[in-house]
Structure formats: structure tokens, C-alpha cells
Amino acid sequence: MSSLIKPLLLAATLALGLTACNKDTTSTPAAGATDTPAAASAPSAETPMDPQIAAQAQAAAKVIMEQVQTGPAPVEGNDYVVIKDGSPWQPLTNGETGEIAEVFAYWCPHCAEFQPLVDAWKPLLPKTVRFAALPMSGGDNDSMASVFFAAEMTNQLPKVHDRMFNAIHIDRVLKPNASRQDVLAFLASHGVDAKAMAGAMDSFAMKGRLNQAVQFARRSEVAGTPTLIVNGKYRVLGRTQEDMLRIATALVLKDNAAQ
């Protein structure tokens, strides 16, 4: 599905230095087991992706990949930090040679600005490199983080992921700390199977996934969002969002070449 996001200020974001969102700047309500999705209402109007913004993101992604080939190699301490005793978000499967994980939060405006560029850059990665998004989790009762995992578990992530950013930061039909019930009602109005998502959110597997995300962020020393982690070994620094993607790509290719 094409991105639904019209960035807040994508052109400015590509030029300005990166600012990260902090977990403790926003709280999300607990995901109660008694919450059930409200009946689907008429869908709210959505701001479509501006073709010019999409073109800018695609052009920027191509430049990033060119810079990986022609620019300087990433420098430890300046471009990335080596993670002591780190490990990937998920083990590599047969044929996979690397993983780039993005720790994000739906309530984070910088993640919303980052998403169109990520959408344009992902298809340019080698097919053997896995890109994995995962939410910054506050633990068992983090309803916003559980929205992402529930969408993933019910195979509805393409309908949900960009739409959540758009609903919070562009159309503002959801609050950054929207309740689980409000989120599910909104998603149901746009054709998402909210009952399936609610079931996933209440499952034992969800608690495991949320706690796994907590442990990954902790061992990777993630302090804000968005943060990129390469192969569980490198935490990307970078001065701009483009710089982050350049560094991450170069690091995963470097590790591939060393195998």
C-alpha cells in the first residue's frame, strides 16, 4: 500500500538535523482486556499522499544509496556506536544476510516525518537484508505499541502502519495517547478487522512481544525515536534522517561483505 502520510515538513526535515522523541514525553493509556472496539463509524477523511512529497522522498532515497557507494565509510563514535553484547531483533532466517531495525513510536512527530523517506528507501535495500520496524514499548500495558504488533500478528500492517501516523500527526483524528478503544474504532472505520486486532492485543503472545521490544531497546541502549539498529551490533547516530539511512545501509553492507 502506498504511504498515506503527508509529512509535516518533509523538505525541512531532510535539511535540518535529526531530533529524537523521548518515551517519557507522552504516556499511553493501559490496554485493558475489557476494551472492545466500538462499532465502525463512517470513515474520517484522510489527507492523501502529495505526489510531490512522494517524489522528493524517492529522489532522496536514490541519493542515499548513491552516497553509500561513493561516500566515506561510517566512522565509529561519529556515525554509530558499537552495542556491547547486542543481538538482532529477530534471528536471521535462511538467505537473510542482515537486519536493519527501526525503533519508532506512533506518537513521535519525528517518526512521522521519517516514514515517507523510509517507505521510499526500503525497496532499494538488497533483497537479503531485512528491514524490521518495532515500537518503543513501555511494557505489557502499552496500547500504542500493541496496535503495531496486533496489526502485524493479524497480517494487517499495510492497512495500519502509515495510517496511524497520518491520523495522529496530519489529520489529527487520533490523539497521541488515544485509547485502545478509540484506535480500534478508527481503524475499523477504514476496513481493518478490529475484532481480530483486539483478540491479538489480549493474547499471551502480545505480552511476550511487548516485553521482547522492551528488552531489545534496553540492550541496544535506545534513548529516543526514531533509532536504527543494524544487525543488533550498531546503533546509528547520524545528523539528519538521510544520514541515518546512509549509515545504516553502509553498515549492513559492510557486515555482508565480511561474511
Helix content: 40-55%
CATH topology: Glutaredoxin
The sequence of SSEs as H and E is: HHEEHEHHHHHEEH
In CATH, the architecture is: 3-Layer(aba) Sandwich
pLDDT < 50 stretches: 1-18, 24-34
Termini separation: 34 Å
Q: What average pLDDT do the residues reach?
A: 87
Total strand segments: 5
* Shape call: globular
Biggest sheet record = 5 strands, mixed
Q: Under the CATH scheme, which class?
A: Alpha Beta
How would you explain this protein's 3D organization?
- It contains nine helices and five strands.
- It is an alpha+beta fold and about 260 residues long.
- The protein has one domain: Glutaredoxin (3-Layer(aba) Sandwich), CATH 3.40.30.
- It has a five-stranded mixed beta sheet.
- The protein starts with 9 loop residues before the first helix and ends with a helix.
- Mean pLDDT is about 85; it is low at about 1-20 and about 25-35.
